[in-house]
Automatic annotation (TrEMBL):
Domain annotation Glycoside hydrolase family 2 catalytic: ranges: 276-436
The protein's name in its UniProt record: Glycoside hydrolase family 2 TIM barrel-domain containing protein
PANTHER family: BETA-GALACTOSIDASE (PTHR42732), BETA-MANNOSIDASE (PTHR42732:SF1)
Residue span, Glycoside hydrolase family 2 immunoglobulin-like beta-sandwich domain: 169-266
Gene Ontology molecular function: hydrolase activity
Source organism (scientific name): Actinocorallia longicatena
Family classification: Belongs to the glycosyl hydrolase 2 family.
Keywords noted in UniProt: Glycosidase, Hydrolase
Residue span(s) of domain DUF4982: 637-692
Amino acid sequence: MIRVSFNDGWRTRPKVNPFAELGGTPVPYADVTLPHDAMIGQDRAAPQGETTMAGGAGAYFPGGVFDYRKTFFVPEEHRGKRIAFEFEGVYRDAVVYINGDYAGQRPYGYSPFLIDADRFLRFGQDNEIRVEARAHQDSRWYTGAGIYRDTWMLIGELVRIVPGGVRVTTPDIDTDLASVEVATTIANDTIEIRTVPVRTQLRDATGTVVASDHSTITVLPGEAAVCRQRLYISEPSLWSADSPALYTADVELDEQAAVTTVFGVRSLSLDPVRGLRINGETVKLRGACVHHDNGILGAATHPDAEERRVRLLKEAGFNAIRMSHQPMSRAMLDACDRHGVLVIDEAFDMWTSAKSDFDYSLAFPEWWERDIEAMVANDFNHPSVIIYSIGNEIPEVGTPAGAAWGRRLAEKVRALDDTRYVTNGINGMLAVLDDLRAMMRPAEGSAEETQGINQAMADAGTAMDRVNASEFVTGKTAESFALLDVAGMNYAEVRYAMDRDLFPNRIIVGTETFPTRIDGNWRLVQDHDHVIGDFTWTGWDYLGEVGIGRPQYLTEQTPRPVHTAPYPYLLAHTGDLDITGHRRPVSYYREIVFGLRTEPYIAVRRPEHHGKTWAGSPWAWTDTLATWTWPGFENAPVTVEVYSSADEVELLIDGDSLGRRLAGPAERFRTEFETVYRPGELVAVSYSSGIETGRHFLLSAHDDLRLQMDAERATIGMDGLGFVAVSLRDRAGTLHTGADRSVSLEIQGDGLLVGFGSAAPATEERFDADERRTYEGRVLAVVRPTGPGKIRLVATAPGCEPADAVITVEEADVR
């Protein structure tokens, strides 16, 4: 079927009661271009002024019900064809109407789905499609709302290749020859038996045809049939994380337009002795958990934004992503294929047991099979996908009934795709939570109160270690782990070594781990063949679950840490990269632990908190910044952290040495120096066996501030996005992190501002405004083209000369 973008020409508004509107003022629609997040532009507020986990989960956005409409013309010549609409993602409980008639629905907000439209359409006339979507107390993170992923209009003949009907596998591979099986599903909606030709060509990255085949297939009326073709590629280029070679399969049916499918030639194998092997070579997963939002763009899933996230995560040292906790977008899968990033794609965050008041558990028993089918269909041809996850921290897994559900889901996945592996992100403490509650109840007559959730979560690391190592968890989770190919363990690294003896056939992946423990966790991954990787929480900061990784210090008013931050906190504030894509100090520390960086790295603790008692959660990195610019703290005490894999490091201020200190694995790859702040130059030098191995410099910024604008790409396509970094720097180009101010932005030419924001974890500023305050000297602008030509961005700020950047927009896709 021909796929035509259906993203333009939509209007949206909050859903209104039609009877109430009759007697009042109609609520106007706003014109939008998809993908669109209807929630990100709403006003935030704490419910009744209170700080609650429920309110903080969604970043204090109110949710709501949203109405999308579009008028479109269907030409008369389309009569007799098959027409469908494809929605890659609508959050949530989507209901679709065509010309006023109910056409279909989808409760799950992350599944792509098709709406068969033929019988509702008026040919030779204008038509209207309406989509309702809603979001309300149904998630533990920021979901966004509305039609937040791409939409498509599909047009096909009565005899046609069905949508997603080309599936490619590579069953036999060696260095000289690879067999490629192309299975094409063809539907016949005529009343006749039809025999049609199927022509398939395989092309390499240069477009050269490397294999071809011609078949015929007979399809009975009202049925579908599968045409299987076996083709062979000589001297194949294998897909891997280090060399992501891609091929395309062009399948043409009876002179119709060819269906093009991208695939890779690669093999997977798994055992507890050699671990995970790709093309015969053992690979350890350097993994990042990520949520689906795109930071200042909200949940809107633009292909260029997904591409950017994947590219920056790969550049930061990750070779794998676990999409948490819902199926990955098609655009991000495409980017992972191109960049060589391995994927654990996850189905659900809940099954039958609710985690939020109105979450997907209400629809799970009826819809889970269709949503598993949608995930597998979306992933099948992507070489980056190596593991399917059937869930995350499902409370039921510690019960026999929960294990039965897990087996049902795992076998469904295997029936649809037996070329990948199955895992489940199991949290041992949550799996026995009901039993723990019973044990934690105070004795009758005791004045002692049950430990609150805030205190328990703030001490999550210690609590999880103790519970996960217990025989209680061993027994309760045994069946749920046994039904998997890979035992996914959330915060359970305490089990890695013990399970080698208890369950010698068990293969483990750390599906979710504390960022503060990466040094020890990575050593476990390296030392144990049956442990195939580690996925940190998180690789990229995200909206919602506000403040779980924020810095906290004990005071008389807050004698213990609190899990959820109050309004106006916006971000989780945990992630190697912040929501604008800037790498935080933990990212460089991780890169050193992974063995990917030989130079040391300097991170300076904020001097205003010097001497205070740290109380951050295990998701919270130290309150550091890679800067030596602290105006107002001259001669104040300050702690300097240096990360290094070398034997020792030396710290110098303006050439004066503060001495050498031990570093490297034995010191957890870090050391600290106590000094006082004075502007100048800070240098860390690393040494191994007495020989210098690297240096890292920090320079203090001067006060002669200027604005600097840097477009990440000078040229973008019509369907692309332009990302422009705006920063405050001195004349030498040094970033000034201590002089934040409001920046105003003007867009000239063929573009619109679709997002403008910083990585500030707590703010009342909006991402859809044209003025935004910098955070740590930075703010990011995102523009969308409105036509081919030039987009000019002009930034102004108090005390600075204006700055500008120009992006050229071309008709072709330049990704």
